[in-house]
Structures are given as C-alpha cells and as structure tokens.
Write a structure and sequence with these properties.
Helix content is about 45%, strand content about 10%. The chain is of the alpha/beta class. This is Oxidoreductase.
C-alpha cells in the first residue's frame, strides 16, 4: 500500500491519523510526504491569462515545491519495488522557490513579462476561504508565510528513489505554459 500523505505530518502541522492507520493495517506500506505542489501555481492561471498579473502573499518566501509528475513517478516506483516497504519518503523539489520566482519562471515559459503583485495575508485568506475551511486556510498561510526549517529543506528522496533529481519549478512551468496563455 502506498499512502500519499503530506509533509505537514512530518512537521507536526497536520494530524497523523491516516499514516497511523496504514502502519497498523498489517499490510506492506510506503508513505509519501510531498510538500507543496508546483501545480498549485494553476490558481494564478486566469489572472496571468487575462492580465499578465500574478498576485500572492509572502512573495519572497521560498519553499521547495514538487512537480506532481515526480510524485507520480515515485509512487509507481515504490509500488513495484519491495525495497521501499516500511519507508517514509519526504518529496520536495530541488530548491526553494518563492511566488515571485514562480512568476518569473512562468513569464520565461510564456516569453512575456508578468507583473507580481504582493497580497496581504488577509487578502489571501479571504480568497482561500472560497474553497477551503478556515483551519486549512490558516495552516496553509502559516506554512507559506512562516515555514519551519524542515518545510524549507530540500529532500533528496526523489533522487534516492528515481536515480535522478527532482524537476525544478521552471520545468513544470515550461511544460504547463499553455494553461497561462
């Protein structure tokens, strides 16, 4: 069994109920704990398409976001590799990248400038409440604005499992540029 969990379980920001249940199941297991997904940048697609603007809080706070393709490849590898049984992998990208850096990568992928507009925490919270419960919005804002050293740390687990480094955000932006055109 492979559980897609969250880096937040390892840092204590999210409960471990699902991981505990998997470990207690008696089945062979592997747990994957990805950090933030590069694909979360799709939340900016409409504003980038319509006005070449990207608004986000904590513009200069970097986190090592992971490409969902890397998560999928790690999951496939651990499903077929018995050497991964009983292991927990922290999955991150190869380097911390801030929202301002993400905007620059998307601009490069498009070949056009994008304006980065800083958002306040309250503006971001208000927008998040449209699609997530208040406690999840608060926890997310805490991670984005005041990440722990563990949340900013780059893990080499993608390299350990796949034999190659995790893909940088810029690669994700290039492969997904059509969403921002």
């Amino acid at each position: 069994m492979v559980l897609l969990s969250s880096q937040g379980v390892g840092t204590g920001r999210h409960p471990a109920h699902f991981e505990d249940a998997v470990r207690a199941s008696g089945l062979p297991w592997t747990i994957l704990r990805p950090g933030g997904f590069a694909s979360n940048a799709l939340q900016w697609a409409e504003s980038v398409r319509t006005s070449r603007v990207l608004a986000a809080p904590f513009g200069d706070v970097g986190l090592p976001v992971i490409d969902p393709s890397d998560i999928a490849e790690v999951a496939a590898a651990v499903l077929v590799g018995p050497s991964h049984t009983g292991r927990t992998y922290e999955l991150t990208g190869p380097a911390p990248v801030s929202p301002r850096d993400q905007a620059a990568s998307i601009a490069t992928a498009l070949g056009e400038p994008i304006e980065f507009i800083p958002r306040t925490r309250e503006e971001a919270r208000s927008a998040m409440l449209a699609f997530m419960p208040p406690e999840v919005a608060e926890a997310t804002l805490n991670i984005l604005g005041s990440p722990t050293p563990e949340e900013q740390q780059v893990s080499l687990d993608v390299t350990r499992v796949l034999g190659r480094p995790a893909r940088p955000f810029a690669d994700w932006a290039t492969r997904n540029a059509a969403a921002f055109k």
